[in-house]
Amino acid sequence: MEISLSRLPKEEQVTLTLGSVFEQRGYRRYQMSNFETYDMYLANKSFLESEGVITFTDASGRLMALKPDVTMSIVKNTKQNDTSNKLYYIESVFRSVEHGSNYREIPQMGVEYIGAKSAYAEAEVAELAVRSLEAISKDCILNISHMGFITGLLNSMNIPDDLRGDIVKSISGKNEHGVIAAASAAGCTEQQVQTLSGLVQLSGRFKSTLKKAENLVENDEMKTSLAALKSLYLALCEAKADDNVRLDFSIINDLDYYNGLIFRGYVKGVPHCVLSGGRYDKLMRRFSKPQCAVGFALYLDELGRAYADKRQYDVDTLLLYNENALSQTVMTAVQYLMKTVPSVRAETQLPQNLRFRRLLVLNEDGTVTEKEVVKC
């Protein structure tokens, strides 16, 4: 019997489709425990998307936590000698919302490429990010940036590390006034302030935005970053995954954890980012792991809210049968109907509030009679 994906909730459609896509590219399913020791998250709180972590003490007296992040656990469990490990996961994380006053379970699906040294490895993960968005909606955008371009620009201005936080936060929030204030407070010249504030609007079609960014190059770090972005774009074009790709230099992740390629994905109908990722070699180093790594997470909870079930009917065909009817007779009727209609529900009486398109009755002689057509 062939199962129709269209009848499943959107998040389940996506996980089934993408699981096959990821495995086709050599990624294997990673499954983890719901718990990790709290000290790991405490030492890396700034990497987490929310500060609130649900903790408890286990039987041995250790302080444990419900996992607020999957990537960190994968990094922790990566072996020092793993030269290449391509993983995907379907997991739930537990995070605080509303400033820590409430917690909720957030289903995610993601890809982690441990040992991703080459430019192709980045291109492959970026392509899979595009495919992930397309599995949700063809009306999607993957915004791409490069941490090396941002850090290179900040380095060229000799801005101290302890003064970069407010500048980076304002750029990421597309807060031009905030950038101007933070850059001025850091002692930047008028020209430097103007350049930094311009990053807020430095986004758009890949080729034209890349050309604008080339006019800002001040050092080899920035030049190398733009060359990497150009190479990435050409690879995505080769995979015919470039139509919905844009450059956006306001995308910045934590400077202590991320380097190189970073990106965020959006789909029509969802007001927030549904996918985020990038290269996180610095996180690997914090766990004393020598490998490079790149990956992304897809937030399935956003899909459940945006693509709520809007079907007109709960079931296409409702078949009513007498409770004394032979099970073989009912089964024969159901199997026959399944060949011609999308879905069948067999009941001895009419269920309350059930929406159906067609009502059939199974007669004593095994024939089926159509009684009425229900219009919603």
In the predicted model, the low-confidence regions spanning at least 5 consecutive residues are none
Looking at CATH, which topology of the largest domain would you report?
Answer: BirA Bifunctional Protein, domain 2
Multimeric organization:
single chain
SSE sequence, one letter per element: HEEHEEHEEHEHHHHEHHEEEHEHEHEEE
Count of DSSP strands: 16
The profile of the biggest β sheet is: 9 strands, mixed
Judged by helices, strands and strand pairing, the structural class is alpha+beta
Q: What is the fourth-level CATH superfamily of the largest domain? A: Bira Bifunctional Protein, Domain 2
- Tell me the strand percentage band: 25-35%
Rounded to an integer in angstroms, the radius of gyration calculated over CA atoms is: 26 Å
**What overall form do the CA principal axes indicate?**
elongated
Return the CATH class of the largest domain.
Alpha Beta
Structure description:
- This protein has 376 residues and is an alpha+beta fold.
- The protein folds into 3 domains: 9-137 and 268-310, BirA Bifunctional Protein, domain 2 (2-Layer Sandwich), CATH 3.30.930.10; 140-259, Bira Bifunctional Protein, Domain 2 (BirA Bifunctional Protein, domain 2), CATH 3.30.930; 315-373.
- The protein is built from 13 helices and 16 strands.
- The strands form 3 sheets. Strands 1-5-6-12-11-10-7-9-8 form a 9-stranded mixed β-sheet, sandwiched between helices.
- Helix 13 (327-338) links the parallel strand 13 (315-320) and strand 14 (344-347).
- Helix 4 (119-136) crosses helix 10 (220-238), helix 6 (164-172) packs antiparallel against helix 7 (176-185) and helix 9 (206-214) runs antiparallel to helix 10.
- The longest helix is centred in the middle third of the chain and has 19 residues, at 220-238.
- The mean pLDDT is 88.
